[in-house]
Amino acid sequence: MTHGRKFHHDAIIVDGLQINNWSRAVLQELISGGVTAVNATVSVWEGIEESIRAIGEWNQFADRNSDIVTLARSSQDIRRAKTEGRVAVILGTQNTSLYGDDYRLVRVFAQLGVKIVQLTYNNQNSVGGSCYEPTDSGLTRFGVNVVHEMNRAGVLIDLSHVGDRTSIDAAEASASPVAITHSNPDWFVSSPRNKPDAVIEAVTSRGGVIGACLYPNVVGGAHAQLSDFCQMVYRLAEQVGIGHVGLGSDCTRNWGDEFVEWLRSGRWRPPSQETATWPAWPHWFTGPEDFPRLTEGLLAVGFTETEALGVLGENWLRLFDEVFPEGGSRDGGIVHDRTREPA
Amino acid sequence: MTHGRKFHHDAIIVDGLQINNWSRAVLQELISGGVTAVNATVSVWEGIEESIRAIGEWNQFADRNSDIVTLARSSQDIRRAKTEGRVAVILGTQNTSLYGDDYRLVRVFAQLGVKIVQLTYNNQNSVGGSCYEPTDSGLTRFGVNVVHEMNRAGVLIDLSHVGDRTSIDAAEASASPVAITHSNPDWFVSSPRNKPDAVIEAVTSRGGVIGACLYPNVVGGAHAQLSDFCQMVYRLAEQVGIGHVGLGSDCTRNWGDEFVEWLRSGRWRPPSQETATWPAWPHWFTGPEDFPRLTEGLLAVGFTETEALGVLGENWLRLFDEVFPEGGSRDGGIVHDRTREPA
Question: What is the rounded distance in angstroms from the CA atom of residue A52 to the CA atom of residue A47?
Answer without folding.
Answer: 9
